[in-house]
């Protein structure tokens, strides 16, 4: 390091990189441009790393009134899909020169409110909220967060806020069309919790595709559940435990589908011969099951990255629009 243990100055970095000191300052305080760093900017950053330069974030925050910290409140972080979304958030924030302050409260509005107000109290520049309960409008209005920019991720509620998630209604339609194309019309849905717009949108899309095809889905064939394996087991017993079981089931998460597969096994049902099954999310394990699961793939990592980029646009005062990212059906052996 230059000067023993002394931190290098911007002027020293600029001289070694062969640029003006103002150029070095700009490069070292700004996030990576969308089209990447120029050759001179890359040289500045390389020299800064070689010399052990670390920006004084505290001094910068006093000048700009920004902390270069984003708050993230996401429920169910132990869920693989949520964790992958958060990974995308953190990676995009890091690339932009921001740190992340994370809280993962229980999936309960009161717990979420406490977490949000705690995170915002740490002077974050913007807030990403995952796990919003529908309808959401009254909840958002009740928050004491001042003018902190807010964007919802994965779940949107009915609040008038920018949102980034997967195109879940289209995903529900894809699942229904896949089953219909394979000749199944005796169908059921395990629909997840009513407060989650991810579950609600997938159900809405599924039912809309059936209605367009003139296929009826009786109300008793729509069963609510949690998102967990245990929810799939409980709902699976309700649908498969008597002689009037459906020929095919759509579950709004893969973890629910794993529970249903366990119930089918215990009942001696063969998949897909006796029961066809379509899940949602394409978590890594489902391709490795004894009967690999047909599912709808949602781009969890990309959702996280996109949400972060759009929140940073809000932080900079730019308007952003809601983004519903494309999903795709992944056909395997269960349907």
Q: What's the topology here?
A:
Layout: H1 10-17, H2 21-29, H3 39-51, H4 57-64, E1 69-74, H5 80-95, E2 99-103, H6 109-120, E3 126-130, H7 137-142, E4 150-153, E5 163-166, H8 168-181, E6 187-190, H9 197-212, E7 222-223, H10 229-240, E8 248-251, H11 254-266, E9 276-281, E10 294-297, H12 300-315, E11 323-325, E12 328-330
Parallel strand pairs: 1-2, 1-3, 3-4, 4-5, 5-11, 6-7, 6-8, 8-9, 9-10
Antiparallel strand pairs: 10-12
How many individual helices?
Answer: 12
Distance between the termini: 61 Å
Total domain count: 3
By CATH, the architecture of the largest domain is named: 3-Layer(aba) Sandwich
Low-pLDDT residue intervals, each spanning 5 or more residues: 57-64
Describe, in plain words, how this protein is organized in 3D.
- The protein has a six-stranded parallel sheet with strand order 2-1-3-4-5-11, sandwiched between helices. Strands 7-6-8-9-10-12 form a six-stranded mixed sheet, with helices on both faces.
- It is an alpha/beta fold.
- 42% of the residues are buried.
- The longest helix is centred in the first third of the chain and has 16 residues.
- α1 packs across α2.
- It has three domains: 46 residues, 434 Repressor (Amino-terminal Domain); 126 residues, 3-Layer(aba) Sandwich (Rossmann fold), CATH 3.40.50.2300; 131 residues, Rossmann fold (3-Layer(aba) Sandwich).
- β6, α9 and β7 form a beta-alpha-beta unit.
- The chain has twelve helices and twelve strands.
């Amino acid at each position: 390091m230059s000067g023993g243990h002394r931190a290098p100055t911007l002027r020293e970095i600029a001289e070694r990189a062969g640029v003006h000191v103002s150029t070095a300052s700009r490069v070292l305080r700004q996030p990576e441009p969308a089209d990447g760093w120029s050759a001179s900017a890359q040289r500045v950053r390389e020299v800064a790393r070689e010399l052990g330069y670390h920006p004084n974030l505290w001094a910068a925050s006093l000048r700009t009134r920004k902390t270069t910290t984003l708050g993230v409140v996401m429920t169910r972080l132990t869920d693989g899909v949520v964790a992958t979304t958060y990974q995308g958030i953190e990676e995009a924030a890091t690339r932009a020169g921001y740190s992340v302050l994370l809280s993962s409260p229980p999936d309960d509005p009161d717990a979420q409110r406490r977490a949000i107000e705690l995170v915002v109290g740490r002077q974050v520049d913007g807030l990403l909220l995952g796990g919003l309960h529908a309808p959401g409008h009254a909840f958002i209005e009740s928050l004491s967060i001042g003018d902190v920019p807010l964007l919802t991720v994965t779940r949107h509620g009915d609040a008038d806020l920018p949102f980034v998630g997967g195109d879940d209604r289209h995903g529900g339609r894809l699942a229904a069309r896949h089953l219909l194309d394979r000749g199944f019309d005796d169908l059921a849905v395990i629909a997840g919790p009513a407060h989650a717009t991810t579950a609600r949108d997938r159900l809405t899309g599924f039912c809309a595709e059936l209605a367009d095809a003139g296929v009826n889905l009786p109300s008793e064939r729509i069963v609510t559940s949690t998102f967990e394996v245990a929810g799939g087991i409980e709902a699976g017993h309700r649908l498969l435990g008597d002689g009037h079981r459906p020929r095919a089931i759509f579950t709004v998460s893969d973890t629910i589908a794993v529970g249903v597969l366990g119930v089918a096994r215990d009942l001696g049902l063969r998949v897909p011969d006796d029961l066809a099954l379509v899940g949602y999310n394409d978590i890594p394990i489902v391709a490795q099951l004894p009967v690999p699961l047909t599912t709808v793939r949602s781009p969890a990592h990309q959702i996280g990255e996109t949400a972060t980029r759009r929140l940073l646009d809000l932080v900079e005062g730019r308007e952003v629009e809601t983004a519903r990212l494309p999903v795709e059906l992944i056909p395997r052996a269960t349907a």
